[in-house]
Write a structure and sequence with these properties.
Elements lengths: L1 E6 L2 H11 L6 E6 L8 H4 L3 E3 L5 H11 L3 E4 L2 H5 L2 H7 L4 E2 L7 H4 L1 H11 L6 E4 L2 H10 L4 E5 L8 E3 L3 H13 L10 E5 L4 E10 L3 E3 L5 E2 L9 H6 L10 E4 L6 H23 L4 E10 L5 E7 L6 H8 L4 H10 L13 E9 L2 E2 L4 E2 L11 E3 L9 E4 L2 E4 L3 E4 L3 E9 L2 H12 L3 E4 L5 E2 L1 E2 L7
Parallel strand pairs: 1-2, 1-4, 2-3, 4-5
Antiparallel strand pairs: 6-9, 7-8, 7-9, 10-11, 10-14, 12-13, 13-16, 14-15, 16-23, 16-26, 17-18, 19-24, 20-23, 21-22, 24-25
Helix pairs in contact: 1-12, 8-9
């Protein structure tokens, strides 16, 4: 069987890698992909092939010509732009929802209103199209808030605010300065909740729902809480697309899984099927908060796997991914048995840190970051470490170089969380990004507290 994975980040590399592990799959095509795949074992052995396809029609033509058996679309933008619709019109089997369903992620206000209508718990919120009205609101409410861009913002559109000044600045940044373009034309201002975050996933096939009975914890803030110098430099501990992850979650229990399914997943899926249609075939992500009083809230819904959550869940999952993806398309998820191995997994993301620029300095991700830094240490990693590449490029002289803010994922597994953490950090310390403007100083940065 042949699979095509559409995407270019770490999650998408991991999807390609996991499909290549299937007993049914002979070839995985990865597009637009990233050249990091050629530096991992499956890429080197030809199980995964990088192909550059520039538009959706090209993707559909390629799938038809190659006889692709399944396409899995990993990231939100092509889903929102209608890639699944284009492929399905050509009779190509897919994993991922059609454009109409992508609104669940690309329109926060729509989803929040839907959840409130069906009684799924979520924090108090208000929606604003006018920045002055939004600022007036945050000046008069009596609690801390999170200001969120209504549209897609690469996981960085939620600004956590400590006080009124922070909230006003967040509104100004999103709605006036257009930090995330048109995604900030409308904002959702939500009550800030304290507790433990949970990333929960379910597969849908248009008839059934298969909640994954394994969940993870993502780390959104850019810096460790005690890195006060960096937090001050950036004007706060900014949210990112994710800086690391681990699973199983420390709070994982059959009781909590069943509670999440009953209170949140089932009513949400029923609403999706009954109000939006029965054609949803793909993944739903539920970003949850469990407060100290055991109250659950939904703070976001996405229409695809998380990044970095998938990088650890995929390692934990023993069920064949091609069988799972095929069941999504065929409407047979009720026949799939979930199998999870006994290991714990930790993903620590190597990011672009402070580096010298041709003029001045780059602060590093999630601010302005440098590019073209040669990546070293890849051959020194221990056996069993999984590497998933994201923001990378290939230079004819330097080899693999940095290209984005989140550069690569180092994923380690072991029999305990502590052992998995130790292994992940022992290996990420071997990774280098050599700053050519600063005597080849190492400008890699990563959080030190993933899994604590």
């Amino acid at each position: 069987m042949k699979v095509l994975v559409y995407g270019s980040g770490g999650r998408d590399h991991c999807l390609a890698d996991t499909y290549a592990d299937s007993q049914h799959v002979d070839k995985v095509y990865f597009t637009p992909g990233n050249p990091g795949v050629n530096y991992t074992s499956k890429g080197k052995r030809g199980l995964i092939e990088l192909v550059k396809l520039t538009d959706f029609t090209q993707v559909a033509d390629f799938c038809a010509a190659k006889g692709i058996d399944l396409v899995d679309v990993g990231s939100e933008n092509p889903l929102e732009e209608g890639l699944i619709d284009v492929l399905n019109e050509r009779g190509i089997r897919t994993v991922g929802p059609k454009k109409a369903f992508s609104r669940l992620e690309s329109d926060r206000a729509f989803t929040d209103d839907l959840l409130r209508k069906i009684g799924v718990p979520k924090p108090e919120y208000r929606v604003f199209d006018d920045p002055e009205s939004a600022k007036e609101y945050v000046r008069n409410i009596g609690y801390q808030v999170v200001v969120k861009a209504n549209g897609l913002a690469a996981g960085k559109g939620a600004i956590v605010c400590d006080d009124v000044q922070d909230a006003e600045a967040a509104v100004h940044s999103l709605m006036v300065e257009k930090t995330f373009g048109d995604s900030g034309n409308r904002v959702v201002i939500e009550e800030r909740k304290y507790g433990t975050e949970i990333s929960f996933f379910a597969y849908l096939d248009g008839r059934h729902v298969l909640p994954l009975k394994m969940f993870a914890q993502d780390y959104k803030p850019a810096f460790d809480p005690d890195n006060l110098a960096a937090i001050q430099e950036f004007g706060g501990n900014l949210n990112t697309g994710g800086t690391g992850c681990y699973c199983p979650h420390k709070l994982l229990s059959p009781w909590l899984v069943n509670r999440i399914i009953k209170e949140i997943v089932n009513p949400t899926v029923n609403a999706v099927y009954n109000q939006l249609g029965w054609a949803y075939k793909g993944v739903l992500y539920f970003g949850l908060n469990l407060d100290p009083y055991d109250h659950l809230d939904v703070f976001e819904i996405n229409v695809r796997h998380g990044d970095p959550e998938w990088e650890v869940l995929a390692r934990k999952l023993s069920t064949d991914l091609f069988e799972l993806g095929t069941a999504v398309w065929e409407g047979t998820l009720d026949r799939i048995k979930q199998v999870w191995n006994q290991q714990h997994y930790v993903d620590v993301i190597a990011m672009e840190g402070r580096s010298k620029a041709s003029r001045g300095w780059n602060k590093g991700y999630p601010g302005r970051y440098g590019k073209g830094h040669r990546i070293g240490g890849l051959d020194d990693l221990e056996r069993g470490i999984a590497l998933y590449f994201a923001g990378v490029d290939e230079d004819p002289e330097k080899g693999l170089v940095t290209y984005g803010g989140r550069v690569l994922h180092v994923v380690a597994g072991d029999i305990t969380l502590e052992a998995a953490r130790d292994k992940a950090y022992r290996n990420i310390r071997k990774i280098t990004f050599l700053d050519h403007y600063n005597d080849n100083a190492n400008c890699v940065r990563y959080r030190e507290t993933i899994g604590l």
